[in-house]
């Protein structure tokens, strides 16, 4: 479903060049559960941003669901992000002035879904993520675990084919992190590809596949037998 | 994104910084209000002058001695000493086919006395036709008799102020007053109509033109007022008057004919220019308001960098982000504009209430033009912050927290 071919990402900062990704080749099947680990600065987030079309490779090719998306226009990229990709971040990244329900609704609003069709879907999602009591609360009034649940609900409401999570449990205590991971794994079991960047080896062991980045290069690609 | 979602998203964002939005709204409102109020004042001045002119009488042509090079327009301030414009010149115009009425005017001041009271008062010498030419009204008695204009009858018609000052509360009719060294019997009193284009009918004594010429000891008229038979005949009347008087003055073009139309259109042009420039000056405040909008948006783009990153990650294109911020600018401009519209109209209403005689009214173009300018300023000054927001790198925007 996701295919990266010889992807490089080079940042130019002043007269310094940072080679964040080097010749990355990666194929990910639909509904795969993949963790990405590696030392800080090894390019994990950069890889996720490129897969999520928030960033473009300096060189190389990116195929998503059989379509070359390396050189799409901004509009086309935005549409792919909207329909095929869900992001979950370490710092939740909710819009502070919007309620939980409104945050969850946001992708539908941006996609131009009329209000009538939205409300049912939002209610259903809020229920499914156990946020019914909290739906009118602002992010500032929610706990970290609740915020991340809102973020995951928001990432799934467009029914994407892949969820990209950058250290989704990094800001949560172990128990809450576990709950959040359960949520994500549940989604994966329903057929959504799940890519998780993490520093937690425990998570690495749970995933069906595990890759390790060092210095922008994939140095390990291991499939766990379940 | 549907339109109503766009607007409600924008309004929610604006509510996030109420004070800043409110102040910008105020600035925009002041700008639009100022345009409306100032153009209303200038338009009021125009209407006032126009009203004065039409109260002068209809289809009016005014003949003055002396040649003016300008076609139409106000009379020349300087010029060679002209040949006299005589009473016979004036009366000859009655034969012209396009001319309906002729009122010769002689004007000056003279001491007027009754008993022991006396005052220097403007004296107008004219004929019976003046009543209709200038649309004068009588309060009591009658106007000058319709007899041979060459007869210097000892009768007069007085204004209400003259009556109050000289005769006090008593009825003036039949009283004899002294003007210069002649005695005149009061036969009527003019209805008070206030000032009418430089002529205060309240403070004036009207006597037969022949008496006035004798009083001022001059054969020359001050003006001749002519009423054309119809509006379409004004040019014909002007031509005939010029021809007849040239003929009578041995081929010399030594008079000036001004038509009310020409004077009015000159005044109108002046006042329209005035209205436009006053509106333009007020529009500068719209520009300032536009710059304020830009400032508010720039601050908001900086503050909401994270949000912009989120929106992009959730699938908002650059164009959509741009539209969101542009909509914010336009919402501020339009809301401020409507506030200003209300404030401007309220100001106009207040002025109308305080000065009912002064026709303060915004010209029809001014409210829509002010709104359009406000909108344009919003869009123009919103464009830069909006495209700055649109170009933000989503990864960088998200990494800031
Ligand atoms: N916008 C940028 N400009 C310059 N250099 C960048 C930029 N983004 C990332 N880098 C560099 O690219 C390299 C990879 O960064 P990346 O954020 O992908 O690392 P990471 O593996 O996610 O690290 P961490 O575990 O700390 O999140 C780093 O050396 C980083 O400094
Ligand atoms: Mg990272």
Spell out the blueprint of helices and strands.
The complex is a heterodimer of chains A (226) and B (401).
Chain A: E1 2-13, E2 16-28, E3 33-37, H1 44-51, E4 59-64, E5 67-68, H2 74-84, E6 85-88, H3 100-110, H4 115-128, H5 144-156, E7 162-166, H6 174-189, E8 193-197, H7 201-206, E9 209-214, E10 217-223
Parallel strand pairs in A: 3-8, 3-9, 6-7, 7-8
Antiparallel strand pairs in A: 1-2, 1-4, 4-5, 9-10
Chain B: H1 3-15, H2 18-54, E1 60-65, H3 87-92, E2 99-114, E3 117-126, H4 130-133, E4 138-141, E5 155-158, H5 160-167, E6 176-179, E7 182-190, E8 195-196, E9 199-200, E10 205-208, H6 209-216, E11 223-228, H7 234-248, E12 255-259, H8 260-303, H9 305-313, H10 318-354, H11 366-391, H12 394-399
Parallel strand pairs in B: 3-10, 5-7
Antiparallel strand pairs in B: 1-11, 1-12, 2-3, 2-6, 2-11, 4-7, 5-10, 6-7, 8-9
Bound molecules: adenosine-5'-triphosphate (ATP) and magnesium ion (MG).
What series of H and E elements makes up the topology of chain A?
A: EEEHEEHEHHHEHEHEE
CATH topology of chain A: Rossmann fold
Number of strands of chain B: 12
Backbone CA Rg of chain B: 33 Å
Query: How far apart are the first and last residues' alpha carbons of chain B, in Å?
Result: 26 Å
Note down, in words, how this protein is organized:
The complex is a heterodimer of chains A (226) and B (401). Chain A is an alpha/beta fold and 226 residues long. Chain A has a single domain, classed as 3-Layer(aba) Sandwich (Rossmann fold). Chain A is built from seven helices and ten strands. The relative contact order of chain A is 0.20. The mean pLDDT of chain A is 93. Chain B is of the alpha+beta class and 401 residues long. Chain B folds into two domains: 3-53 and 265-399, no CATH class; 104-229, no CATH class. Chain B has helices at 3-15, 18-54, 87-92, 130-133, 160-167, 209-216, 234-248, 260-303, 305-313, 318-354, 366-391, 394-399; strands spanning 60-65, 99-114, 117-126, 138-141, 155-158, 176-179, 182-190, 195-196, 199-200, 205-208, 223-228, 255-259. In chain B, the strands form two sheets. In chain B, strands 2-3-10-5-7-6 form a six-stranded mixed β-barrel. A two-stranded antiparallel ribbon of chain B has the order 8-9. In chain B, helix 8 crosses helix 10, helix 8 packs parallel to helix 11 and helix 10 (318-354) runs antiparallel to helix 11 (366-391). Chain B is elongated. Chain B starts with a helix and ends with a helix. The chains are: A alpha/beta (226), B alpha+beta (401). Chain A binds chain B through residues 49, 52, 54-55, 74-75, 77-79, 81-83, 85, 87, 89, 91, 93-98, 106-107, 109-112, 114-115, 154, 158, and chain B through 1-2, 4-5, 9, 12-13, 15-16, 306-307, 309-320, 394-395, 398, 401.
